[in-house]
Structures are given as structure tokens and as C-alpha cells.
Amino acid sequence: DVARVRRWVKSRNDGLSARARGQIVYELDVSNRHVTVLECRPPWRADFGPEWTRFPIVRFHYTQVRREWATFCRDRNLKFRRYTPMPPSGQIETLLAAVEADHSGVFWG
User: Fold this and answer.
1) Rounded CA gap, 26 and 14, in Å?
2) What would the pLDDT profile of 6-59 be if each residue is shown by its tens digit?
3) Which end of the chain, C or N, has fewer beta carbons within 10 A?
């Protein structure tokens, strides 16, 4: 499943327009229980240093007992909350497709 998310992130990066390349890149943070997709951007002011900003877009949390993934989004306080309109699924592709479509605008604005 993590490899599927990696491929999805790579396809998002490959699909960026020539103008957007170098201005944005998507990355993946992987831990034991979750996978987080991040939007990364270069520093917008030189006095802020050379580090890119990394803003989490979506987190997929795996529950081994149920063998399913749940989707989490960021709230206005920048805390992850379970995204209840999207039910957990044993198929990560189902969740990736829903995040890609983002009918609510909660992930991509």
C-alpha cells in the first residue's frame, strides 16, 4: 500500500506544469502507523533561510486489526482530524482517488 501511495505522489509530481516545477513538490512521510502526503515549497524570502516549507495535506492511518486505512485532514488549528465523509477502506486506491477528486476542497483548497 505504501508503494501505491509513493506512485501516486510521483504521478502528482510528474503531472506538474513546467511553470510549477521547482515551486512545488509533493513528498511522503512514512511511519509505522500512518503515511502523510506533504506539499513542499521553496523559501519565499531569503532571510527565512534555505529550508523548504513542508505542509501536510492528507494522512492515511492504517489499523492492522481491521486491515483498513482511514483518511485524516488538517483542521483550522492545523491538527489532524478524521475525515468522516470518507469511510475507511481496505483499498488505499479508493482513498487516493477520493483525495485526488477532493469534492469538498478540504485537501487541495
Assistant:
1) 10
2) 999 999 999 999 999 989 999 999 999 999 999 999 988 778 788 899 999 999
3) C
CA distance 33 to 36: 10
CA dist., res. 91 & res. 67, Å (int): 9
Closest CA to 63 of 28, 23, 90: 90
Q: Is the pTM of this model over 0.85?
A: yes
The grid cell for 39 is 506539499
Contacts of 84 (CB under 8 A, 6+ apart): none
Cα–Cα distance, 22 to 64 (Å, whole number): 37
Count of other CB atoms within 10 angstroms of residue 86: 19
Residues in the chain: 109
- Measured in whole angstroms, how far is the alpha carbon of residue 32 from the centre of its chain? 16
C-alpha neighbours within 13 Å on the C-beta side of residue 88: 13
